Amino acid sequence: MPPAVTSPLERLANAFPIWVAGACGLALVAPELFTWFHGPLIVAGLAVIMLGMGMTLSLADFTRVATRPLAVVAGVIAQFLIMPLAGWGIATAFGLPTPFAVGLILVACCPGGTASNVVAYIARADVALSVVMTTCSTLAAVALTPLLTQALAGRFIAVDTLGLFVSTTQVVVLPVAAGVILNRFAPAVVRGVLPAAPLVSVLLIALVCGSIIGESAATVRESGLRLLAAIVLVHAAGFAVGYGFARLLGFPIVTARTISIETGMQNSGLGVVLARRHFAAEPLTAVPGAISALVHSVLGSLLATWWRRRPDGQS
């Protein structure tokens, strides 16, 4: 299959691991370049990202779930079973300090991120299925992210389940719904905006990650290696177990790759926003989310490149 032709904006967006890695690395040595992007700006940035995701969707995408219910259900189960358990288990096994443990569990309980759709495209997986899975896990997260965080992180710190529910609705459901409405009633506007939307999302994610790392630069430098190792293991487990889970259920390799990508890649920006809003007394809870964005981007890109070079019949 010949490689797809991509525009300069798409090529820049596809380099999202480089953008995120550059922002995180620069924030460690020059935090002031990123720490201005904080508070309401982070929330607004995530809302813009979710709005962009909504603009890529139509009502037909939601009805398409009915044509492939088993794959979608399997993907959502993998997302909210494998990752939360991996986050809790690895945080416990590594004996992470409470803020890092809670932050890791929180981001592991988040839905799939929009970056997974880009990685699915690079990997020649099922992009349409990836988009539907991301949408379904995002909507399910309104209830599941607060409940799972309470169940798994409650022994570390008090969890405001209702507050998490309200915040998830505000920063996820409302922007996505607004994007779908724009796609339906203002298609000309959406067509004009969409070419730049992926790159804007990538740059916003990089700013969010750089801000969080910059504000906790000293702590990250001191204990970053253990935390980094824990986060790498969580995402690696998501990719590997997600793939194995899908194959065990009898799905074809292309579908299994898609479920693997959806499982291993989280909406780390949502994890950062929820940590900042609901664990303000422990600001370090946002750090795992920022590092997670870098880790799953790099691992996902490497995996996508590997799969892209292999025939569909080989894993």
Q: Which key terms come to mind for this protein?
A:
315 residues; mainly alpha; Na+/H+ antiporter like fold; 15 helices; 77% helix; globular
Please count the beta strands (DSSP E, at least 2 residues each): 0
Strand content: under 5%
Structural class: mainly alpha
Q: What level of helicity do the residues show?
A: over 70%
- What is the helix/strand order? HHHHHHHHHHHHHHH
> What fold name goes in the CATH topology slot of the domain at 71-173 and 201-308?
Na+/H+ antiporter like fold
Write the layout of secondary structure elements.
Blueprint: H1 8-14, H2 16-29, H3 40-55, H4 59-63, H5 69-93, H6 98-108, H7 115-122, H8 127-153, H9 161-185, H10 187-193, H11 197-215, H12 217-248, H13 253-264, H14 268-278, H15 287-308
Helix pairs in contact: 1-11, 2-11, 2-15, 3-9, 3-11, 5-6, 5-8, 5-12, 5-13, 6-8, 6-14, 6-15, 7-8, 7-13, 7-15, 8-9, 8-13, 9-10, 9-14, 11-15, 12-13, 12-15, 14-15
Nutshell version of this structure?
This protein has 315 residues and is an all-alpha fold.
Q: How does this model look, in words?
A:
- This protein is globular.
- It has helices at about 10-15, 15-30, 40-55, 60-65, 70-95, 100-110, 115-120, 125-155, 160-185, 185-195, 195-215, 215-250, 255-265, 270-280, 285-310.
- Helix 5 (about 70-95) packs antiparallel against helix 6 (about 100-110) and helix 7 packs antiparallel against helix 13 (about 255-265).
- It has a domain at about 70-175 and about 200-310: Up-down Bundle (Na+/H+ antiporter like fold), CATH 1.20.1530.20.
- About 75% of the residues lie in helices and about 0% in strands.
